[in-house]
Design goal:
It is a single chain. The protein is mainly alpha-helical. The protein contains 13 helices and eight strands. It folds into two domains: about 110 residues, no CATH class; about 200 residues, Cytochrome p450 (Orthogonal Bundle). Strands 1-4 form a two-stranded antiparallel ribbon. Strands 2-3 form a two-stranded antiparallel ribbon. It has a two-stranded antiparallel ribbon with strand order 5-8. A hairpin with a 5-residue loop joins strand 2 and strand 3. Helix 6 crosses helix 13. Pfam families: p450.
Length: about 325
């Protein structure tokens, strides 16, 4: 989660948050407040009294309000620093050699609204942190349950990155040799990550609000302000879509006869949504997950700390493991 957060902050804000090492107390507080806010937001769907609690500022809504203050203070501070940085660059006539996403937005007239920038930043954090971080957790969990698949992916990774060279494995060697060409060779890894997303989609429940009256493709009428929800979590387990082995973890279902990845219709595999609303960060997410997975699996073997310990969901907007995934990591020799 922290690695994904650091990555998206650097891409979106050009800021090295460095939350992975936990050296910043401010960053740690932000992460906790962000996750707790996400959980409290989802509970609103289940709590018919949440508006009343918000009105009186009590219990879960009072805590949510406090967490939002922490999140806003942290994000606004980063935005203000970015605005000053851009202004200083403009004053001294120097150009931004490497523009991040927020810097690009600052060139637009509507960027004068700090709240809009905050919403943009939070949108990128939600899209880039929870999704890839939670998927990687479930991915490692699945590979611990299927150790033969873990070894198969590890061998594919080593072959793609090291070109079958008989060299001593180390993190630096892997990092230096990760390239677009190497990532493209990792077809089974791509399939395994996709299979993880099928069974454990990062966003398990998706809701859309209708802006106008419309008719769905099956003839069902919807009215303005109606809310339509669909459940990628349930769809990923439907036998009518994925056959009788729908609940089995089988990366091979995503490979053709030559072992190359073949995509399913996004209207069946809805983890990234579909049509005009398909996830803009889909390719970025895959690249990020493949890089992290390649380094970890190429250099370490993973086993669950306790095979009998139940792995439960945390009730949040994203599908996270409650309490984290506890594993042992053993260096590969």
């Amino acid at each position: 989660m922290n690695a994904a957060l650091d990555s998206i902050f650097e891409v979106a804000l050009g800021v090295e948050l460095d939350s992975l090492c936990g050296s910043s107390e401010e960053g740690v507080n932000f992460c906790k407040a962000f996750d707790d806010s996400s959980a409290a937001t989802l509970w609103r769907f289940l709590d018919p009294l949440w508006k009343l609690k918000k009105y009186f500022n009590i219990r879960s809504e009072a805590k949510l309000k406090e967490n939002i203050k922490v999140v806003d203070a942290f994000v606004y501070k980063l935005i203000n620093n970015k605005v000053k940085e851009v202004q200083n660059k403009q004053l001294d006539g120097s150009s931004m050699s490497k523009e991040d996403i927020v810097t690009r937005f600052l060139h637009l007239p509507e960027a004068a609204d700090p709240k809009l920038l905050r919403d943009i930043v939070l949108s990128f954090i939600i899209a880039g942190k929870d999704t890839t971080g939670s998927t990687l957790s479930w991915f490692i969990y699945k590979l611990c349950k299927y150790p033969h698949l873990q070894e198969k992916i590890a061998q594919e990774v080593k072959s793609a990155i090291l070109n079958d060279e008989k060299v001593k494995i180390n993190l630096s060697k892997f990092e230096d040799n990760i390239s677009e060409e190497a990532l493209e060779k990792m077809q089974y890894l791509h399939a395994a990550l996709t299979e993880t997303l099928r069974l454990h989609p990062a966003i398990p429940l998706v809701s859309k609000n209708c802006f106008s009256d419309d008719i769905l493709p099956d003839g069902f009428s919807v009215n303005r302000r109606d809310t339509i929800s669909y459940t990628p979590y349930a769809m990923g387990r439907m036998k009518s879509i994925w056959n009788e082995n729908a609940e089995d973890f089988e990366p091979e279902r995503w490979l053709d006869e030559n072992g190359n990845f073949q995509a399913e219709s996004p209207f069946n595999f809805t983890a990234f949504q579909a049509g005009p609303r398909i996830c803009l960060g889909k390719e970025f997410a895959y690249r990020q997950m493949k890089i992290i997975s390649a380094v970890l699996l190429g250099c370490f073997m993973f086993k669950l700390k306790d095979e009998k310990e139940a792995v439960n969901y945390r009730t949040m907007i994203s599908l996270q493991i409650d309490g984290g995934l506890h594993v042992h990591a053993f260096p590969r020799v």
